[in-house]
Amino acid sequence: MPPLPRNPPIAAGGNPKGCEHHAYRCPLLSGDIAWRATDAKVEGTGDSVTERAVLLRAGRPSFLGGAMHHRGICHKSLGEARLLLVAMAVVLGLGLMPVKATAQQASDQAIAETSQAQDRLMTAAPVNPLDCFNVTATVSLSGGSLEAGEFTFRLTDSAGSAMQVANQHSDLTGKNNYVNFEIPYGQVGTRTYRLTQENNPRYRCDTTVYEVTVTVTQDMLGNKGASVTYSTGGKTVSQAAFSNGPLPPPSGQWVHEGGVTRYRTPQGTYASGWYTIDGQTYYFDTSGDHGRRTGWLQQGGTWYFLSPADGHRETGWIKEGGAWYYLNPSTGAMATGWAWVNGAWYYLKGSGAMAAGWVFTGSQWYFLRSTGAMATGWIWTGGAWYYLAPGDGHMYRGWGFINGSWYFCDRSSGAMKAGWIWDGAWYYLYSSGAMAHNTTIGGYRLDSSGAWV
């Protein structure tokens, strides 16, 4: 083979050991040749020489005529043998080619063995870029537009070794994004790979792992082909697809120190006043230690109740200190007076506690059952019957026309009367409370108004 071109020696002063270094150019095949670094000592001289390696793996498998392989040639004087130290090379599956040299063999053996390695390198057939199979995946980003190179993907073999690393690119329209790996066919048979996406801290990245199964075949003419299938979670899919999205908004953090519970906001400050966290509202002191409050809290003349367990603002019915309270379902404000809740009227005292039994308000009496719900119609309590208006629940006193009959309820207590009563005239009320009229009771005649005549 013709000698490889070599560059001029490095000028004196550029080499601290005073050695002459040459750089030789030779064609390398991406993914097929790896020069490994090795350190060696020149026997008999005490000189140490290091061979620096070049490793070509990722990228498009093609004939790289301009790739560089550096080898060092070191000599102290013209009288000394020139020693060539070369790393081991792996060339297209031809195996390891150890190149050894000693001070005694320097010029002859080292250069001869190096030439053999170069001969095998130069005569190795280059890989045709078309003799590759493709591993592809689509890439999408919700809530935003993709730019080429934003996401990185890794293809590893069954042993977990990286085959290639690639970034996503846009197609000709600029609307669809994909990632593509070109892998030489290699040996006939079936191989498996893993396709994954590397994390990008600026996005929420899809962590799906795809298993890629490749079956390489060869016909009688030596032409190779490959079929590629994708699966994930044990199920075969038509293609590998990664769906990325924006990161969730930054969250704050609860801080418990010295018996005080605070909340550090995403902006780094402590929450103050009313503050909503994960759908629950809390109150934090506006001065001092900014501690979270619990229990009853009065703000702007309104009372609120904060859970003793975690401090969140309660709403709806709560039982505290043996009494029931109703807190506005939207604001949490404690209710007082009349409240319409789930189809019934309730009365909350000035303290907010739910009333039960008789309540006198607005010059009228009302009766609230043990549940707190306002009663209407006839009720029996305290050994007497009472009638409460069907509409607003107020207690009847005096005469009342109910269901086609007249009844009389005590003008003071509201209790229903029965028997003979005096109310400007004598009337008779049956045991049901209904007034008798147009009849004779005990020899006494009652007219149409019910009065004794």
TrEMBL record:
Transmembrane intervals: none
Gene3D superfamilies: 2.60.40.3050, Aspartate carbamoyltransferase regulatory subunit, C-terminal domain (2.30.30.20), Cholin Binding (2.10.270.10)
Keyword Repeat: yes
InterPro entries: Cell_wall/Cho-bd_repeat, Strep_pil_isopept_link, Strep_pil_link_sf
Taxonomic superkingdom: Bacteria
Residues of the Streptococcal pilin isopeptide linkage domain: 142-244
Keyword line: Repeat
Renumbered ranges of Cell wall-binding repeats: 271-290, 314-333, 335-354
Protein name: N-acetylmuramoyl-L-alanine amidase family protein
Taxonomic path: Bacteria, Bacillati, Actinomycetota, Coriobacteriia, Coriobacteriales
